[in-house]
Specification:
The chain is built from 18 helices and 14 strands. By secondary structure, the protein is α/β, with parallel strands linked by helices. The chain has two domains: 276 residues, Crotonobetainyl-coa:carnitine coa-transferase, domain 1 (Rossmann fold), CATH 3.40.50.10540; 77 residues, formyl-coa transferase, domain 3 (2-Layer Sandwich).
Length: 410
């Protein structure tokens, strides 16, 4: 079976995570994603620790075959060419590539593509069906559009950092690069919608993605602007302010999460922890009552969980009908039969040495009933597909390719 996006060509001008996340998903659906790197400098993520190579994982490069692990994960199923976009010949070659492309994705700072002459307005005149996606910290418009920002800056600007942490502690970022990842996923979604629109209209368009916008759209599901009026602190640890019990609880050897959304589910918890005598207690009768007495509710559950091991507590509670789960480490996840069955733990591949035993990447997270998705090729080496793209697609001769390399164009 063919993948959904086979036949779709994507020019990938992205670095780090937000843009590469979007193009990784496109590549997983079969799009021909062509990474474009500066011939004078390798991808910064490929050059960043931790590395992996013939001598294993390390924080410093040990051999000339060592490549950054993040790059190996984010560039799977992609092709790679080199091109100097600041040179006249380089820009001309890029414009020719854009005429045969369906999608272009970039995450430069606002204004860079205009200075290079490869912005949407310029390229769409050559290819009116081109879908051009820009992923930036604050978007392409608005007073903050020109600001630069890394993931943690976007988490702070979106309000997520102010929500994360405990009431008596400082604001904290999420454990992963959530703004980058979410921005990339929204970029992927925007591109897919634009492809659908093009199928009906024949027209491409500019897709403008702001990492801050994307994260805020998820964060603001919470009524944050009512917290002060309700007397709630902005940071509530692992709780959800409108539900009780809903928290993480210590066990003998770890932590578990127990979640309830209804009074009936609270009664299930009470029966499971052998406190059904509290079912009719007025302090805990309705959700609003339990929220007022939440510390007491958490103490009741903690008294039960801390006397048991995590696996024992989870098995027992699930059997009783309680919605719960263990707080897993990465080693727990790697050992999970469920995650293995879902194909979420493939062995990471290296373009020079093949499979890397003991090192994994994430699998493709979208499952279709009729078309496959996934990653079956390792990340490419810089310029690995120069001949295929320049000679095969643009029709250059091998001698022209040599001349372009000698001139520093590719």
């Amino acid at each position: 079976m063919k993948k959904v996006l086979e036949g779709v060509r994507v020019l990938d001008l992205t670095q780090y995570l937000s843009g590469p996340q979007a193009t990784l998903l496109l590549a997983g659906l079969g799009a021909e994603v062509i990474r474009i790197d500066n011939p004078a400098a390798r991808d910064p993520v490929a050059e960043s620790p931790p590395f992996v190579g013939p001598e294993g994982v390390s924080m410093q490069r040990r051999t000339d075959k060592d490549i950054g692990i993040f790059y190996l994960k984010r560039a799977r199923n992609k092709k790679a060419i080199t091109l100097n976009l600041k040179s006249r010949k380089g820009k001309d070659l890029f414009c020719r590539l854009s005429e045969d492309a369906d999608v272009l994705v970039e995450n430069f700072s606002v204004g860079v593509t205009e200075r290079l002459g490869i912005d949407y307005s310029s390229l769409s005149r050559r290819n009116r069906s081109l879908i051009y996606c820009s992923v930036t910290g604050y978007g392409s418009t608005g007073p903050d559009a020109g600001l630069k920002g890394y993931d943690s800056v976007a988490q702070a600007a979106s309000g997520l950092m102010n929500l994360t942490g405990f009431p008596d502690g400082p604001p904290m970022k999420a454990g992963s690069a959530l703004a980058d990842s979410v921005g990339g996923v929204f970029g992927f979604g925007g591109i897919m919608a634009a492809l659908y629109h093009r199928e009906r209209s024949g027209e491409g368009q500019h897709v403008d993605i702001s990492m801050v916008d994307c994260l805020f759209s998820l964060v603001f599901d919470e009524p944050l602007d009512c917290y002060e009026q309700l007397g709630l602190p902005p940071r509530m640890g692992n709780r959800i302010m409108r539900l009780s019990p809903f928290n993480s609880y210590p066990t003998e050897d770890g932590w578990i999460v127990i979640a309830t959304g209804t009074t009936a589910q609270w009664h299930t918890v009470l029966r499971a922890i052998e406190r059904k005598d509290l079912i009719d207690d007025a302090r805990y009768k309705e959700m609003s009552d339990r929220l007022i007495h939440n510390d007491e509710v958490d103490a009741l559950i903690t008294e039960w969980t801390k006397a048991r091991k995590t696996a024992e507590a989870v098995d027992y509670l699930r059997e009783a009908g309680v919605i719960c789960g263990p707080v897993r480490t990465i080693e727990d996840i790697k050992a999970s039969r469920h995650m293995q069955a879902r194909g979420m733990l493939p062995t990471l591949q290296h373009p020079l040495i093949g499979d890397i035993p003991g090192l994994h990447a994430h699998g493709f997270p979208i499952h279709f009933s009729k078309t496959p998705g996934g990653y079956d090729r390792p990340a490419p080496l810089s310029g690995q597909h120069n001949k295929e793209i320049y000679c095969g697609l643009l029709g250059l001769s091998p001698d022209e390719l040599v001349d372009l390399k000698n001139e520093g164009v590719i």
